[in-house]
Amino acid sequence: MKTSNVLNIETNLFIKDNIIIHPNEGYDLGLLNHSTPVKIFANTTIDIFNLAEEYYTEGTVLLENNCKQGSIQLSKKYWNSIGKPEKVRLFYEGNKVLISNM
To answer: How much is the pLDDT for 3?
Structure first.
């Protein structure tokens, strides 16, 4: 399982079911394509993440140069639903991303 550094959250009203990160953060996770479809998990246990059967949202990780390095962009609605964390760490394995509050 690959992990990112701690990332500051920026909200964006115009993205839906997407996570936007800087390409350098994507490289740390082993993502090299501009767009990667994933199952997005947040505020869940590692067991639920590993099983990947419930409590997830289908989405896409986008690598964008206009995203500040060391930050992540989430939709404001999704950010509210996961408890409005200020900082998170991403974990990536297969086609799954876990957003872990810091």
So the answer is: 94
A 10 A CB-CB count for 36 gives 19
The β-bridge partners of 82 are none
- Burial class, 23, CB count within 10 angstroms (exposed 0-12 / middle 13-18 / buried 19+): middle
User: What average pLDDT does the structure give for the chain?
Assistant: 93
Reference 19, options 53, 4, 2; nearest CA is 4
CATH no. for 2-101: 2.40.40.20
Alpha carbon 4 to chain centroid, angstroms: 10
**Domain residue ranges in the chain:** 2-101
Binned at pLDDT 50, 70 and 90, residue 17 comes out as confident
Distance CA 48, CA 13 (A): 28
Could you give the CA distance from residue 11 to residue 9 in angstroms, rounded to a whole number? 7
pTM of the predicted protein model? 0.91
Give the DSSP letter of residue 40: E
Q: Beta partners for 18?
A: 60
